[in-house]
Design goal:
With about 140 residues, this protein is an alpha+beta fold. The protein has one domain: Cytidine Deaminase, domain 2. It contains 4 helices and 5 strands. It has a 5-stranded mixed sheet. The two termini are about 25 Å apart. Bound molecules: tetrahydrodeoxyuridine. The site of tetrahydrodeoxyuridine (THU) has 14 residues, from helix 2.
Length: about 140
């Protein structure tokens, strides 16, 4: 995993916080923002977007990754998740699987409104993941 500079880490955290402000979460009232560092070096952000048909809600992490992928990105180096809570929120299982597609080596950082932070890796969150290699 390539090291991320403290300045870049701060930019990612700022982008994740800003993205949460765009959250559309009238049903859960649980806003989430995510920012990813892509292989190009660019930061892509996203928020959770809910739907009256609850099962169609999309998490912030997947919004960010799908946005990046639609722009041609194929590598996720780091994911930052922000929630305006006192405890940091780790990515849900579905998002772990989606992160694995483009970022099996990704660093995953969850931040919130207190000092609580989860700084880990996708491999630790989703060990023995099923991924593209299993279809080869
Ligand atoms: N949510 C995320 O955006 N990311 C996660 O990793 C956990 C859950 C969203 C989905 C839903 O809009 C709300 O949080 C409550 O589950």
């Amino acid at each position: 995993m390539k090291k991320i500079s403290p300045a870049l880490e701060q930019r990612l955290k700022k982008a994740a916080r800003a993205a949460a402000k765009k959250s559309y979460s009238p049903y859960s009232t649980f806003p989430v923002g995510a920012a990813i560092l892509a292989g190009s070096g660019r930061i892509h952000a996203g928020c959770n977007i809910e739907n009256a048909s609850y099962g169609l809600c999309n998490c912030a992490e997947r919004t960010a990754i799908f946005t990046a992928a639609a722009l041609g990105e194929r590598e996720v180096r780091c994911v930052v998740v922000y929630t305006p809570t006192q405890t940091a929120t780790p990515p849900c299982g579905a998002c772990r699987q989606v992160i694995n597609e483009f970022g099996p080596q990704a660093r995953v950082i969850s931040i919130c409104d207190s000092d609580h932070c989860i700084d880990t890796t996708l491999d630790a969150l989703l060990p023995h993941a099923f991924g593209p290699r299993n279809l080869a």
